[in-house]
Each structure stands twice: as C-alpha cells, then as structure tokens.
Amino acid sequence: MGQRYGLEIRAATGADAAGLAELLAAAGRPIDPHRLAERLESLRQEGGSALIALAWGPPSGLVAFHRHRVLDADLAVARIDALLVGPEERRRGIGRLLLKAASQAARVAGCGTLHMDVGPDQADLHAFCAATGFTPGATVFERPLRKRS
Which residues does the UniProt record annotate as the domain N-acetyltransferase (predicted)? Predict the structure, then answer.
C-alpha cells in the first residue's frame, strides 16, 4: 500500500502469521500461528482484507475487515473485525494510518460505510473512533449459533 514515516502498510500474508499471533496474544486474543495463516487466507478469499503496519521486526499493528451487503444501503458496508496496535507502538499514529489504509481499500472494494464494533469497556477505542470521524451507532448484540460444550 505505501510507506510513511518509515512505516510500511501492506496486505498480511501467511508468512506474517507468527508475528501477528504475538500481536494478538498481547491484546488478549491468542491464536495458533498456523490457524491464523489459514484464517488470513480465508478472509482474503471471501473478499475481506487484513493490513499490517511494519517498521522493522514483527508487525506493529493490524486492521482486518470484511465487506457485506445490507438491505438499507445502496453500497456494501465494510466492518472492521480487528484494529490492533502493539502496546509499545501506541500513540504514534499507527492506528490512524491503518484506518486510513482500510478506508481506502474499502472504497476501492465498493463500500460506502465503515463500521467498527466497540465494547462499552473500551474507553480508549471510543475516544479513537470519535477522533477519527466515527459516529455512535446502534448497540450490537451477539448470540452463539452452537451450544457450548
């Protein structure tokens, strides 16, 4: 995608899975690197995108989104599934750069709106969303489709 301030933003590949697994584990979302590589490929095949920020070493940040159609909008919606920046990399503009790259990729994919679910306990993310042009929307509820064992 591009470079800015020595930071490269590009599509994630299976080769990035080990570094991304570390980033996800630091955010409390551990995943096996092999499973992550498979999920990155599935996301790509299904029209989604995962972009990473790299300076040197492992990825500094990640944004992943998928596009889908909704009944009440002419254009598809891009829903951000993950927006993460490593703990030591925060407050350096990496999240904004990832959001900008995701917005551009979503526009190119034919989307008209970008959505991001933010939990009530994520005050920092609420502030980030407000500072980057998001407006509050409806609350999202979720329900598992299979019984837990």
Answer: 7-149
